[in-house]
Specification:
Number of strands: 48
Radius of gyration: 26 Å
CATH topology of one domain: Immunoglobulin-like
Number of helices: 0
Largest sheet: 5 strands, antiparallel
Helix content: under 10%
CATH class of one domain: Mainly Beta
């Protein structure tokens, strides 16, 4: 099986190539035009696209195999023409046209992923019988590239929320700055790599107060908000079947929100000094009565793990970060995440494949901690990441490989840890004044992105692949990133910016 070494040679684009020089797999080594060592009448492979050990195949390009004789359609199946990656079988459709078989993947293949194609002797021809010998092909998908500036929306008065799901879909909710004040939202479809046009969620005569949004793995969304002049009044609107439904306004508090796959909305808010949970059934027009989830605590985040959500709250009495799960009408036992008696700030999180999550926070002034949620066990585990740093972030994939981004003074630091091992010594990837925040994402293959940004300054990024951090490069000049979201399966990424009343983005595809 071919494996690849240098990221520097990953150029975009491939062309059709005939089988040659691939270690005997498919080469016509006896000059009779029928493949490697075959008889003139045997069914053999003549050429493939991509070729064996191709280092830069396109993620959405079909796999084309040309045979020496017309192939029986019924002999081609996932069992006889198997396409796999490190994450398992690759789904797709076959097209048999005479002696040519084309496999088109149903979704783009993983960036930088090595893919294997195994053809068995089950593939057959009326003229030549079964394939003379099993045939194997390996190739690597090219890395992505950052796009230029993408204009998402203008006339934005205040960006209120950027929420995302595990697929990398997003909903961006904001208040407008021109005309009658309104709340609008833009959705990003990760599969199509496209932003929707702004959609009107609600229009009011008064300014809006707090607002939050959520999007589930089916692409449905919800936005909740309060009125600025009457904060005890809240409104909400759902988006399903491609459009926003009429808003409902009623008394009540506004909090952070999650949306399960069946359309049940869950909201966590602060009521009477306690962190409480409310639910809204898919067809309901009123929220359930508030139930105290964590007493004497304030809500800091609401994270989604499948049809279960995890409420993250700061318990004032013990100065401690707590987590408590909610699913199907019941709450799990609360778990302590941070040490008691320490201030907590800069909370960030990353969704992993399955129902796992990673969360980071700054404890006190100089201790960065992280916690990982095991969706199968429903438990959190936590540890200290680093001391003496600020603006730090850590991310982890399902195998346990981790990346970390740090800011120490004017130095931007990066570190990597193999599964089950501690972080290697941080690497100084650059020095930029005024950096205040950091972020990172790592995919299932262990490749990732690291980001750094400063208030009113510039944003920078570094790619991690094949065990190396790439050169630090500028991502955008102007107001820094608001949110960086990465797809842990395909290795793509999106970064959202909010300069001068406009929402913009850059995409890594």
């Amino acid at each position: 099986m071919g494996r690849f070494i240098s990221l520097a040679i990953l150029l975009v684009g491939i062309g059709c190539s005939c089988i040659s020089g691939n270690g005997g797999m498919g080469a016509d080594d006896d000059g009779d035009g029928d493949g490697p060592g075959g008889d003139a009448g045997a069914l053999t492979v003549i050429s493939t696209n991509p070729e064996n050990e191709e280092p830069r195949a396109q993620p959405d390009a079909p796999i084309v195999v040309a045979f020496s004789h017309p192939v029986l359609t019924e002999s081609v199946s996932p069992a006889t023409f198997a396409v796999t990656s490190s994450s398992g079988p690759v789904a797709g459709a076959f097209d048999v046209d005479g002696a040519t078989v084309t496999f088109t993947p149903s979704a783009p293949m993983h960036r930088l992923g090595v893919h294997d194609v195994m053809l068995t002797t089950g593939i057959a021809s009326d003229d030549a019988g079964s394939l003379a010998a099993p045939f194997q092909l390996s190739f690597r998908v090219s890395d992505g590239e950052w796009s230029g500036r993408i204009d998402v929306a203008d006339g934005v008065g205040d960006l209120r929320e950027v929420a995302h799901n595990r697929r990398g879909d997003m909903v961006l909710a904001y208040a407008t700055s021109v005309g009658p004040v309104s709340i609008e939202a833009v959705l990003f479809d990760a599969a199509q790599s496209a932003f929707s046009t702004p959609g009107l969620v609600e229009q009011e005569a008064q300014p809006f107060g707090e607002a939050h949004a959520a999007i589930n793995d089916e692409g449905d969304a919800i936005v909740v908000w309060s009125g600025l002049t009457d904060p005890q009044t809240r409104g909400w609107s759902r988006r399903s079947a491609g459009s926003w439904v009429a808003a409902i306004v009623a008394p009540g508090q506004v909090g952070r929100v999650a949306l399960t796959s069946d359309g049940t909305a869950i909201m966590a808010s602060d009521v009477g000094g306690d962190a409480v949970i409310e639910t809204l059934a898919p067809s309901a027009t009123a929220w359930s009565s508030p139930a105290i989830a964590i007493p004497s605590a304030s809500v800091r985040a609401l994270l989604q793990a499948g049809d279960r959500v995890e409420l993250i709250a700061y318990k004032e009495a013990t100065q401690q970060l707590m987590a408590r799960g909610y699913a199907q009408g019941s709450m799990t036992a609360a778990q302590a995440l941070s040490s008691p008696g320490a201030a907590v700030s800069s909370i960030d999180f990353q969704y992993l494949p399955g129902e796992d999550m990673v969360m980071t926070w700054l404890q006190g002034d100089d201790e960065v901690r992280y916690a990982r949620f095991d969706g199968a066990a429903g438990t959190w585990t936590q540890d200290t990441l680093a001391a003496g740093t600020a603006g730090s972030a850590v991310c982890e994939n399902t195998a346990g490989a981790r990346l970390a981004a740090f800011i120490s003074g004017e130095s931007l630091l990066a570190a990597h840890a193999e599964p089950g091992e501690s972080f290697a010594g941080p690497q100084n990837v650059g020095s930029r004044p005024g950096m205040e925040t950091a972020g990172c994402a790592i995919d299932e293959l262990g490749h990732g992105h690291l980001f750094w940004a400063g208030e009113g300054g510039r944003s920078f990024r570094s790619r991690f692949a094949d065990g190396l951090f790439a050169e630090l490069l500028e991502l955008a000049n102007g107001p820094p990133m608001v949110r960086a979201v990465s797809d842990p399966i395909r290795g793509t990424a999106r970064v959202i910016f909010f300069p001068d009343g406009n929402l913009t983005a850059r995409s890594f595809d």
